[in-house]
Amino acid sequence: MKAIRYTREAKKSIDRMQPKRKAAVLSKIEAYARGESVDIKKMQGSTDYRIRVGKDRIIINDQGVVVMVVSASPRGQLHKG
């Protein structure tokens, strides 16, 4: 299993989620780290990947041994800065 690390932004965003959504997001991240099949797609123009969990999106950077969770938020709000 790969180690999982979270950016401060991602941790805050996940902590603010409702319990069911938070549990679903965390379980999907853990499933990816274990090597299970998840809905993942490489993002254009970036080395990051997107994992879809219902209406939420998780942006990760897979660094081989470590999975860095960069961001997590509802689909429409992910790229707004």
Summarize the structure.
With 81 residues, the chain is of the alpha+beta class. 30% of the residues lie in helices and 35% in strands.
Q: Strands, helices and their partners?
A:
Layout: E1 3-6, H1 8-15, H2 19-34, E2 40-42, E3 49-53, E4 56-62, E5 66-74
Parallel strand pairs: 1-5
Antiparallel strand pairs: 2-3, 3-4, 4-5
Q: Major beta sheet, specifics?
A: 5 strands, mixed
The amount of helix comes to 25-40%
Low-confidence stretches: none
Give the termini separation: 32 Å
Order of helices and strands: EHHEEEE
Please state the CA-atom Rg, rounded to the nearest Å: 12 Å
**Number of helices, where a helix is a run of at least 4 consecutive DSSP H or I residues:** 2
Let me know the average pLDDT.
Answer: 88
Strand content: 25-35%
Strand count: 5
Task: Give the spatial strand order of the biggest sheet.
Answer: 1-5-4-3-2
* Secondary-structure-derived class: alpha+beta
- Envelope shape: globular
What would you note in describing this structure?
The structure is a single chain. The protein has 81 residues and is an alpha+beta fold. 30% of the residues lie in helices and 35% in strands. It is globular and about 30 Å long.
What tags apply to this protein structure?
81 residues; alpha+beta; 5-stranded mixed β-sheet; 2 helices
